[in-house]
Amino acid sequence: MSRLVIPIGPQHPILKEPISLKVEVEGENITHVDLQIGFVHRGIEKLVESLNWVQAVPLIERICGICSHVHTTTYCQGVEQLAGIEVPKRALYLRTLMCELERIHSHLLWLGIVGRNIGQEAMFMYAWRDRELVMDVMEAFSGGRVSHQANTIGGVRFDPSPAETAAAQKLLAELESKVVALRNIVEHSESFISRTAGMGVMNRDDIRRYGLLGPVARASGVDFDLRRDRPYSVYPELDFKVIVRREGDVWARAMVRVEETMQSIAICHHIINKLPGGAVSVKAPRRVPVGEVISRTEAPRGEVVYYIRSEGGEHPARVKVRTPTLPTLASFPELLQGVSIADMTVIISGADLCIACADR
Amino acid sequence: MLDWLLLTLQMLFFPGLVFQFAGAMVFEWIYRVSIASLEGRIGPPWYQPLMDFLKLISKEDILPKSANRWAATLLPVFSMACVFTAGMYVPFAGTVFDSFEGDLVMVVILLSVPSLGYFLNGWATGGSYSLIGANRSLLQYFSYEVPFLTAVAGPAFMAGSWSIIVIKDYQSQFLSLVFLAPLGFLVALVALIGKLKRNPFDIPKAKSEIVAGPLTETSGESLALWHLTLQVQALIGIFLLVNLFLGKVYPGALVNFLFFLGKAVAVQILLGLISVGYARTSIANLTDIGWKVLVPLSLLQFLVLVIVKGLA
Asked: A20-26 and A29-36: which strand pairing?
């Protein structure tokens, strides 16, 4: 059969966000992939420079619609370090709690999307139904389901009462039993395994070559989690396991993500039980002393790095964001070589892309 | 004169256009609701399939410049005519419009015409998704049609006739053939899913891969007719299976009617159950399933039936 170029994107049912993959196929198999990105570039990095330090927080929150809190956490953490602000313990705990809630939400969202893309609509429905529980918890805490506006420089902007945290724990316990059910589907469903096992296999060398991070790397046997290996915030005081698998395929990525969801639920319980009293924020100065800082956090998709430079003024001189999606995108042309169209869908959705993060 | 009038009325109302249209809408709704309840949703109201049809048919038919407008307009009409004609010859609760020796073969062939039309529609409308979907639909056709025919041949062999009504009457004397040919029924059911292009065999129109397959560029009236064709095809396919495998007739017109309807609804819900339970297979897997699993199973079933009939 002659060659045919099928356009995957900028608009296509598998993509939540626009990228463009011009996929050249011969019959069912892919012979060449041409990747284009930048469809949702909003110039946020430049825009941040025109705002003052605090004003930048809500804008940075809008970098991503799924991991919005982790972006502001990374930014605030960096600025606090630069300005030498001592953040109250309670604020750090609450900030971390929100990060973990967001991880649960992001992983469940991903699981649903993979289910939908492999044609298992039921999995999408169940994962997204269960995700509502964690959305409710986040809404109860901060008032926002997606954009929480929870962070500010010097602390957080929400202060849950004991009754509220108890209610959250109840919802989380309910969620846990449902995630166990989802994990059983991922682990044992013949149908799910047949579509994901052996797809998009990457070994440790591939991971290193492309600089891949997060669950994708951990599914290929790279035992690295920023929360444990370069601990920030209150993670040293928390007890959790880093999930690593060696298979390196989409199924392993799914397993890593559901197991991580379980871990995150445990971390949330842990945080709520240990939650200290006191203030949730301190006043941030208008000006930040001259200097530069690199702030790193473990986002649901991998490591988020912020480079922040101050020239002593009211505005950041430069904020550079590095998100884990970009290297994942870079690996696609090689990863998709020779696979069939049906498997391409699985591999693309298995990577958990966040284009808004990558384009900014 | 009266004959012609009666014939026209039969074609228009029962078991023709109106009856099949209404049945297709109701069964489509049952399918959607059964899937929805299995997925933890509520599902649409009963008139939703009708509303979908009315909305689509009232919309403008837009085609790309490169498409063959004649073919794209005629193919759905032709396919629809074929399934409606097939529906005329499938008995509903024991009543049938007409029957003759060999009508089973005709119904099976008429039911497979839309698959060909579907394939041609992909080529006629152009577009890369459509082309790939068209090729896939043809490959899929070769995977399910053979096991379907072999499975359907079992009851025909038992009854010693290729007439659906004779096969059904044959079962009334003893018991429904599903007890004698459970494998055949299962194979026919799975092949029917392939025929209807429903999940897990929605490969030709896999949304996350090739958008809507051969129907990607089809819109408006043509799309409405295509959806109707598939829905009527589902209805007739289910009625066919009920007649061939669950054909035992019970005394009393009302009892028989209710039993027939109940069986048909049960088959539809079973189809929904299979759809919800499995992820979409890839086309390579489907040919494997078709030729390495379904065909041997249906042949085995046939062998069992031959032995049973020999003993009896």
From this structure: antiparallel
Question: In B39-163, which ranges are continuous DSSP H helix?
Answer: 48-57, 69-88, 103-125, 128-159
pLDDT digits (tens, 9 = 90+) for A253-272: 999 999 999 999 999 988 88
CATH of A43-323, one of 2.60.40.3140, 1.10.600.10, 1.10.645.10, 2.30.140.10: 1.10.645.10
Among the partner residues A125, A192, A340, nearest to B279 by beta-carbon distance? A192
Residue A38 to chain B, least CA–CA distance (Å)? 22
Query: At A33, is the secondary structure helix, strand, or coil?
Result: strand
CB A354 within 8 A of CB A71: no
Nearest CB partner across the interface for A125, out of B41, B135, B280: B41
Which residues partner with A303 through β-bridges?
A: A298
How many other C-beta atoms can be found within 10 angstroms of the C-beta atom of residue B61?
Answer: 16
SS3 B74: helix
Best CA proximity match to A165, nearest among A70, A96, A268: A268
> Contact, A335 vs A103, CB < 8 A?
no
> According to the model, what pLDDT value does residue A2 have?
63
Q: How far is CA B80 from CA A308, A338, B57, B71, B221, in A?
A: 65, 39, 14, 14, 12
- Rounded Cα–Cα distance for residues B208 and B133 (Å): 12
Find the radius of gyration of the CA atoms of chain B.
19
Give the SS3 label for residue A185: helix
pLDDT digits over B141-174, tens only?
Answer: 888 888 998 888 888 888 888 888 888 888 877 7
Question: By C-alpha distance, which of A43, A106, A27 is closest to A301?
Answer: A106
pLDDT band for B266, please (50, 70, 90 cuts). very high
Spans of all domains in chain A: 43-323
Residues B34, B273: contact at Cβ < 8 Å? yes
**Contact: A14, B209; criterion CB under 8 Å:** yes
Q: Do B129 and A6 touch (CB under 8 A)?
A: yes
Residue of A117, A119, A129 with shortest CB distance to B200: A119
H or E element, residue A22: strand A20-26
Give the best residue of A25, A28, A196 to mutate against chain B (max B CB count within 10 A): A28
